[in-house]
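Forum: Protein Structure Q&A
Topic: Joint prediction for protein chains with partners

I've read a bunch of threads here and the consensus seems to be that you should model interacting components together rather than docking separate models afterwards. I'd like to see that in practice. Below is the full input, 496 residues plus whatever partners are listed. Could one of the regulars post the assembled result?
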Amino acid sequence: MIFIEDKQMVIPGDVLADKEYQSGRGTFKEDDKICSSLVGLVAIRDKKISVIPLQSKYIPKRGDVVIGEITDIRFSMWNLDINSPYSGILPASDVFGKEKRDLNKAFNVGDVLFLRVVDVDEVKKVKLGLKGRGLGKFRDGILIYITPTKVPRLIGKKGSMINMIKDETKCEVVVGQNGVVWVKGDPSMERVAEKVINMIEEQAHTSGLTDRVRNMLFELLGKEIPEKEEKPEATEEATDEEEEEEENGENLIQ
Amino acid sequence: MITIITNKILGKNSTSSKRADGRASDELRPFKIEAGVLERADGSAYLELGGNKVIVAVYGPRELHIRRLMQPDRAVLRCRYNMAPFSVDDRKRPGPDRRSVEISKITSEALMPAVFLEKFPRSTIDVFIEVLEAEGGTRCAGITAASVALADAGVPMRDLVVACAAGKSEGEVVLDLSEVEDKDGEADVPVAIMPRTGEVTLLQSDGNLTPEEFGKALNLAIEGCMKLSEAQKEAIIKRYGD
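Posted by a regular:
Agreed with the consensus. Here's the joint model:
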């Protein structure tokens, strides 16, 4: 027995289905019943029911790429705020190797970095690293915070949404899995990108978003809206499809 | 001739009830719940119940810096119930007092069973309940609004906790005591439940009741909770304007 439909909005405590279904993310099992634990939209895949939250906090996961801001410099590491209930640490050895150098000379408090989550241990100590293409310090630009669950929606299928924003605003855009977005370009264009990204966050749970984003972009840029090719948008699902962000080669230190 | 209409007269004229505001014994005061009213909080809710006006903000799960409070296996749920100085007829001295410390504690205990705290070890979820106007039954109003705010913040929960009081006033067991009924009445029984399973997460009793009256009051309060629960759900769904 199933009591809800795909993409229906549910709230905590709603009974979703009977025991013949599997309990996925955002749900829990109680007395052979599958219930929602979040406010979100139902996603049914085969026999697995999950709830995609409309609002959430970022929980660090190994391998994720995130954007963090340095909050403190300690003896041999930096502390970073990664927009999560758990703060991250970046060991000095990761930046300098075996060499002993002054930590202030590399990064200072307030610097924004693009990092990879190297490890998350049982006590939720988040180790970050800078090894990888495109990772490093950001100079200038603005930060936009969105709900982490909406990151896949912002990127779009194979990066369609984010590439559209990049192409139209001529801004560099980097999205962290933790819901922090860095945008750098002409200040007026940065503002356009910010508006569009905030709109995507607000309407992430609706369908046909790509078209509306395109119209909004053209409107904000004062361009003609081109003839729409009638192509029913395959409704993208803001689910686990964790698409790799296009990494930008610049902003590397050293 | 001018007659001054007071609540007493109104109550006497109404045939349906002896209550001061003319409500039936199982009738709630008019209520309104709204989710997502604050911009900067992770989740928020506003609730009106009769003359009560309560606003709740939820922050978290977020980093807990106080080491001694940290739980290695779960998050801590910190609640602060606070009454505004202008919330009552005589100015209330600002700051926590014995009553608000108690209500903060029981609110956090009433909400805890519903929240999946074990999903966020070593962190904290902060709930701030601000009573803007009080007219009896603010602890229940606070709990009801707090669970809406928690859901709005995206905190995973087993159910939406809902609270409602029942009591005895002028010899009759009644639902949702107003301020007068609470002050002049014989007893007050605030109850919080998780409506899906019917589990009770808060049960207090102040005053004198016979076992029969207590049972009646408890059932009445649960009935009231169920009505409020519907409004809670609507408030959350309305927030995202389907």
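The first strand of chain B starts at residue 31 and ends at 35.
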